[in-house]
Hints:
This protein is an alpha+beta fold and 247 residues long. It has 8 helices and 7 strands. It has helices spanning 33-46, 118-125, 147-156, 164-168, 175-186, 195-208, 219-223, 231-246; strands spanning 3-9, 18-24, 69-70, 73-74, 96-100, 109-111, 114-115. A 5-stranded mixed β-sheet has the order 2-1-5-3-4. A hairpin with an 8-residue loop joins strand 1 and strand 2. The longest helix is centred in the last third of the chain and has 16 residues, at 231-246. The mean pLDDT is 96.
Amino acid sequence: xxxxxxxWRQASPTAAGQFVVYQAPDVSPDMSFLEMLDVVxxxxxxxxxxxxxxxxxCREGICGACGMMIDGIPHGPxxxxxxxxxxxxxxxxxxxxxxxxxRARAFPVLRDLIVDRAALDRIxxxxxxxxxxxxxxxxxxxVPVPKEGLDQAMDAAQxxxxxxxxxxxxxxxxxxFVGAKVxxxxxxxxxxxxxxxRVLALVAAADGEGFGACSSHGECEAVCPKGIGVDVxxxxxxxxxxxxxxx
Length: 247
Ligand code: SF4
Ligand code: FES
């Protein structure tokens, strides 16, 4: 199949960016989206041009690095699919595909399709963890974990920190990400001692990083490659209110 690609090119965080049109002939429908970009880059480099910068690591839907806007949708047209697991058979021969970086105030563009998502890491550093004393590992069955809470925790733990929820939200809100991280730990007994401090700290960190507020558009849930639902935001709001009332 033959594609026309409109790709955002921006040499540095301070440089002006623009869309540049490239032809991508002989694309195999079995290629992943990133493999298609690899081939485009091989041709650019062979012609002495600068390769298109894009982020990736695992290429297995695990690390969350590969996010980009494909025809205006974070991670592209397939639900519950990361960019690296999107295949070219989902596009049509002759199609024009527009590719640009995530757009959000808290995600500055570094180069081409790469944005700086370190703000999400700083939110986790503010308290998105469980403190454990050093020493021998505790006996695995010493703390019983209720099945319902465990299921909710493991569902929320699927968040890979890709930032697609932020990019899709008209407010640039990280509420789905924060809700997933809070739910992941709050539903486990081990997460209880620091729960209230964690909720307040993560929300304050997200506000401080410039992420917007949630106004219940639901775009985040629609694009999350891991199927995280907005129920984690409802639990976040409830837990935030309770923690705030307790001071
Ligand atoms: S909640 Fe979903 S979309 Fe948001 S960072 Fe986590 S995996 Fe990505
Ligand atoms: S490269 Fe790791 S999730 Fe896509």
